[in-house]
Design brief:
The chain is an alpha+beta fold. It has 3 domains: 2-74, no CATH class; 88-121; 124-261. It is 41% helix and 12% strand. The protein has helices at 31-52, 57-74, 89-121, 129-133, 135-138, 147-150, 183-186, 210-223, 237-243; strands at residues 2-5, 11-14, 27-28, 155-158, 177-180, 191-194, 204-207, 248-251, 258-261. It has a 4-stranded mixed beta sheet with strand order 5-9-8-7. A 3-stranded antiparallel beta sheet has the order 2-1-3.
């Protein structure tokens, strides 16, 4: 004789042929085992109700432990039937704000990605309005740099072919021919030579200092609503500057100036850039 749990939750004798019980579920060879199983089920149901109304974290932890022990006795998975903790009102509001912020950021990133494509496709660019408006704060006057005037006063430090793997220069202002009016600074990069006339830009955009250049980058990104970190993803700074009508830039006063020409052909591939 086999026993099972009826649809009403009582332990009753199963009169069906073996393996053909319409209720399915667990069957027991004797009444004692069946009653023990039923008691564990009822105890679990009571504990779950208590857990839903438990007032403190400590009581919730204790009740979950007791339910897990009953699940083990019932042959169920450890967390079977244990309700997921419901967050407090404050936590729900916090999660809602996080979700809204994530959606807003995703929307903004998508918009910036589209704006970046538009920015990169432009054939001509203007100086950012904020920079143009406060030009004196960031830029030196037009034609401040003159290669006719600066000729024979601009230098480069270059490595020999044998030492090309030890170059220390970085193209932080785009791909181009770098030089400087500071002969001592140039010597840090190798043997110093005077720069040829054609190696200097014919029309340079001259920044007062490094900070001015960084403000230019920021203003350019803001005006086109793009992420500054991605501005050079697909086009070099040299391309952007040339779209503004310049073939190079300078940073700093004539006495201590970094000069970058974007139109100069590199004469020797192993020369370093400063």
């Amino acid at each position: 004789m086999a026993y099972h749990i009826s649809s009403k939750g009582n332990l009753t004798v199963c009169k069906a042929q073996q393996g053909k019980c319409p209720l399915g579920g667990k069957h027991f060879e004797n009444e004692t085992d069946g009653m023990e199983y039923l008691d564990n089920l009822n105890n679990k149901a009571n504990l779950i109700e208590q857990l839903k109304n438990a007032p403190t974290p400590g009581s919730r932890i204790r009740l979950r432990k007791e339910i897990r022990l009953l699940n083990k006795a019932l042959g169920l998975e450890e967390n079977a039937g244990i309700p997921t903790p419901q967050p407090s009102k404050e936590e729900s509001e916090r999660q809602k704000r996080i979700k809204e912020r994530e959606l807003e950021e995703a929307k903004k990133e998508k918009e910036m990605a589209e704006n970046l494509k538009i920015f990169e496709s432009k054939e001509y660019l203007e100086l950012p309005k904020n920079i143009e408006k406060l030009r004196r704060n960031y830029l030196l006057k037009e034609n401040y740099f003159s290669r006719q005037e600066m000729y024979k006063s601009v230098y480069r430090g270059e490595q020999s072919k044998e030492n090309r793997d030890h170059n220390t220069g970085t193209a932080m202002y785009g791909q181009g021919r770098y030089s400087t009016t500071n002969k001592k600074y140039a010597s840090k990069f190798g043997k110093v030579r005077t720069v040829d006339y054609e190696e200097m830009p014919a029309k340079a955009l001259s920044f007062k200092n490094v900070t001015s250049f960084e403000m230019f980058e920021q203003a350019l990104a803001e005006e086109h609503n793009i992420d500054k970190r991605h501005m050079y993803r697909n086009q070099d700074l040299s391309v952007i500057i040339k779209k503004m009508g310049y073939d190079g830039i300078t940073i700093g006063p004539k006495s201590d100036m970094i000069i970058v020409s974007y139109e100069t052909a590199i004469r020797t591939v192993w020369f370093d850039i400063i």
